[in-house]
Design brief:
The chain is an alpha+beta fold. The chain has helices at residues 3-15, 22-40, 44-53, 82-89, 145-152, 162-174, 181-187, 198-211, and strands at 61-67, 70-76, 108-111, 114-117, 130-132. It folds into 2 domains: 57-136, Ubiquitin-like (UB roll) (Roll); 139-214, DNA polymerase, domain 1. 43% of the residues lie in helices and 12% in strands. A hairpin with a 2-residue loop joins strand 3 and strand 4 (114-117).
Length: 214
Amino acid sequence: MSQDAQHTEQWRSTSAPAHVTRRAALQAAASAMALAGASSTPSQAQQALPATTAATAPEQATIRLVVNGQPRTLSVDPRQSILDVLREGLNLTGTKKGCNAGACGACTVLLDGRRINSCLALAAMHDGAEITTIEGLAEGDKLHPLQQAFIDHEGFQCGYCTPGQIMSGVACIAEGHAHSPELIKAWMSGNICRCGAYAGIVEAITEVAKEGKL
């Protein structure tokens, strides 16, 4: 064999790929598919997770309320606030949902004569309570004195916060905190008016308090 032939034979033996049998190729492909399937198939623990962590709806609670003088028996979700029960369950939409975090006062109602942020109070925890909303202030077509005073003194612009302002104002007078503009401002500070109608609000509360219309 010539020297060139020897070099050629040596190159073939060192650089040619090793012969792969059909059986070996099929085995390699099957192993790769099994590995891919194992990585994409959820484990038994993962498959069981939804069954063990799925939230179950709480049982409904039956409560009795007196709302604007009318007895009500309601079936409520224990997680529902008084605000949501009033708006969604009783269709009393005068009480507004503002921040839904107790910071703006738009949802103020009277609970057993005391003003509260109804968005923070769970209805199921107040079985037997008496609630007064903005709809319960007027007597037929006759407005409540503070409602009329808000109109007379232009104590609102867009009107969104007005129901809460009026309910809080009624409580402010009843609590004896309306003897001066300074007191009124302090005790009404939990009710926010984005339109800035504070001057009219203070004047309306001052008038009603002085005249003893409540």
